[in-house]
Amino acid sequence: MKFLDDLRNLDRNNIGGWPRSVKVFFIVLLFAVVVFLGWYLKISDQQDELSSLATKEEQLKQEFSQKQAKAVNLEALQQQLDEMQDMLRQLLRQLPSKTEMPELLVDISQTALSAGLEPEVFQPGPETPKEFYAEKPIQLKMVGTYHQFGTFISGVASLPRVVILTLHDVSLTPKDKGSGQLVLQGTVKTYRYLEDDESAAAKEANRPGAHGGQAGGGK
């Protein structure tokens, strides 16, 4: 072919004398190389960035849809939260009040005596206010039989006010081998509800960054 013959017979020292077809070929080839390099160095990076932005756009759309769904139901969720908080306050109101705590402690002690237990130690400690309630620890050591302890627990459960006792580091061990008596020793905690002003003070005291100690309760 003439074009191939022209390529073979090119004079590198006389580019101006090259046949027109050869000049056009090299111009087109040079243009193609420039376009390829431009795409490789610039456009390919932009395509990668575009792909990354498209992925991010999809994620943002999903987040927007989720937040929009929550925003639509925000009022209903807030109403449910308010109702749950009201129910919690009503339940807490069934716990003893501050003025009832001394009498409650006496009732618990008397219940232990009525069950036949020997309360060697029954020492209430200072209470710790939480957000909605206060807990009061009682150090105790009681001696009695298995059935007497069962009677004691049943008696506490039947007190007029709702009484919650939780056990902490409590041990139950035999007193004497063959005597049938057990020794209950450790700490139990009972709880009362906080009045509105006490609850506000407790929230402020428990707020992150708040300073100062918590107020101690009465016996």
UniProtKB/TrEMBL annotation:
Sequence intervals crossing the membrane: 21-41
GO biological process: type IV pilus assembly; type IV pilus-dependent motility
Location of the region described as Disordered in the Swiss-Prot/TrEMBL record: 199-219
Stretches with biased composition (Gly residues): 210-219
Keywords: Coiled coil, Membrane, Transmembrane, Transmembrane helix
InterPro entries: PilO, Transl_elong_EF1B/ribsomal_bS6
Positions in coiled-coil regions: 43-94
Domain of life of the native organism: Bacteria
One Pfam match: PilO
Keyword Membrane: yes
Protein name, UniProt field: Type IV pilus assembly protein PilO
